[in-house]
Design goal:
phosphate transport, signal, 9-stranded mixed beta sheet, D-Maltodextrin-Binding Protein, domain 2, elongated, alpha/beta, cell membrane, palmitate
């Protein structure tokens, strides 16, 4: 009887131990699942916070030559950051430099160095070169001239040559269309296309898009535009046999080109910094720029300073 009782107690003890072990395993599984669920939830929250971290708006104003590029880049940037708004406006380089100097905008776009503009405190601004753009003289498609010398170009814009037939073209009066004072495109064209000569008084336009429309619709018209605005509705002229191409800009064989500057008042911060950093990514530099007829600064074989001095890199 005693042996039976001992055997009974031993079996009861073993059964109790088995139940306890099963209970602990289930509890462990539940705790593990709870911890996994908690970790996953926390991770999702962190990722959500990171993706939504950039929020707000910035305003970018200035160069009309830069405007198509910056608008396209802004669209891509806003797709990646849905809580951000990038407002892009033209108005010309002078406007961009004035507005950023006043602190009225977040970024001032310019085709010229701030040092070139009188009254602009260049030492208080930070310069970010985000691209290079070529510029060319453009004419109505029926003027009958495709290649001129630089001296002839200067004679046209200073009023010495008044009819296209003087250059072997159509018997058509030359109609000069200028960009407005303060335009970086105009400043670049006058400096490197006209060797610093002042053009004759003529109609002036604030917008590159408007200039293109007028030239395309006005027989005998001539003006100048960034490569990014040149299309089949107008004709770009060669100068001394050189074609207005990206390859010729890179080597300074084509002289009429400019850096595309983004200026900030002090160092860029927050959304402004993120957007400028985005402008310098491969997504913009190697994909967007060439598609829109701009060049990466890194593709240049030469460098040009604020005084117009060119050196080989």
């Amino acid at each position: 009887m005693k042996k039976k009782w001992i055997a009974y107690v031993a079996c009861l003890f073993m059964f109790t131990m088995i139940l306890a072990a099963c209970s602990n395993t289930e509890a462990g599984s539940q705790n593990s699942a709870s911890e996994t669920s908690k970790t996953s939830s926390e991770t999702n929250q962190e990722n959500s916070t990171e993706s939504d971290e950039l929020a707000g708006s910035i305003t970018v104003v200035g160069s009309s030559a830069m405007q198509p590029l910056v608008e396209a880049a802004a669209q891509q940037f806003m797709q990646q950051h849905p809580e951000v708004t990038v407002n892009v406006q033209g108005g010309g380089s002078g406007t961009g430099l004035s507005k950023i100097s006043e602190g009225a905008v977040d970024i001032g776009n310019s085709d010229v160095f701030a040092e070139e503009k009188e009254g602009i405190p260049a030492d208080k601004l930070t310069d970010y070169k985000v691209a290079v753009v070529g510029m060319a003289p453009v004419v109505h498609s029926e003027v009958g001239v495709e290649d001129i010398t630089q001296d002839q170009l200067i004679d046209i814009f200073t009023g010495k040559v008044k009819n296209w037939k003087e250059l072997g073209g159509a018997d058509q009066e030359i109609i000069v269309v200028n960009r407005a004072q303060g335009s970086g495109t105009r400043a670049t064209f006058e400096t490197f296309g006209l060797n610093g000569q002042e053009p004759i008084e003529a109609q002036e336009q604030d917008s590159s898009g408007t200039v293109r429309k007028i030239v395309s619709e006005t027989p005998g018209a001539i003006s100048y535009l960034a490569f990014s605005y040149i299309d089949e509705s107008i004709q770009a002229l060669k100068i001394d046999g050189a074609e207005p191409t990206a390859e010729n800009v890179e080597t300074d064989t084509w002289k009429i080109w400019a850096y595309q500057h983004m200026y900030t008042n002090g160092e860029a911060v927050d959304i402004t910094k993120e957007f400028i950093d985005y402008m310098l990514t491969d997504e913009v530099q190697t994909k967007l720029l060439p598609k829109m007829d701009y060049l990466p600064v890194t593709s240049m074989k030469v460098d040009r300073d604020a005084n117009g001095v060119v050196t080989k890199q």
